[in-house]
Fold:
Amino acid sequence: MKKEKKSALLADNCPLICETYKDIISKIDSNHCFNVDITYNCDGAFDIIKRTIEKETSLNFVILDLKLLPSENRKILSGEDLGVFVRKLLPNTKIIISTECNDNYRIHNIFKSLNPEGFLIKRDLTAEELKNAINNVINNIPYYSKTVLKLLRKEISNDFSLDSIDRQILYEISIGSKMKDMPNYIPLSVASIEKRKRHLKKIFNVKDKGDRELILIAKEKGFI
Structure:
C-alpha cells in the first residue's frame, strides 16, 4: 500500500524538542510518510512558509511554540504572529500550538486570534499525546490537551483580546525602546501608542505609573 505523503513544519526555540517531535511524528503510523521541516525562530519559519507558497506545494500542519525568537525586522514577534501569517497565506494548513504557557487569559486570546486546530500544553505532553493530536488534526478533528480543556471551562473576569499592535508595544517596552522611537517599528503615532499603553495597563489592572509592573504581568501571562 502506497503511503500518503504529508508535510509539516516544527517551529520551537529548543532544538531538542524539535528533534523529539520529529522522531515521534515519523512513528505515527504506517499509512503516512511525513516530510518535516524544523526551525528555531520566526525568520526561519517564515522563509519555509514563503518557499511553500513559491513552489506551490502544500503544508499540512505546523506545530508552533509561542515563544519563538522574533524576526529581525520586528514584524513577527512570536508563534502567535507566525500563526496569523499561516492563516492568511496558507489557509488550508492546520495549526497546532505547543506551549509552556498555561495562563487563562493567554489561551483565550490565542483562540480568538488563531482558533488553532490543536492546542497542547507542554507539561501535558507525552509521545502518545502528540501522536493523538496530529492524527486528530490531519483528520479534521480538533485536539486540545487536558489543561487547555480545563482552562477553557473556567469563567474569566475580563473578556479582552490583544492584537498584534498591542503585542508589539509590549515587546518594544520590554526591550527598552524609547517612546519617541516606537513609530519607527509600529504604524502608529506616539500619542496613539501612549493611548494603547494606558489601555493595556487598565486591562492588566496595573496601578504603577511606570512600565515595570506592566511588563512583569505581560510576561507572566505569556504575552511577551
In short: The domain at 164-220 is CATH 1.10.10 (Arc Repressor Mutant, subunit A). The chain has a mean pLDDT of 90. The longest helix spans residues 190-203.
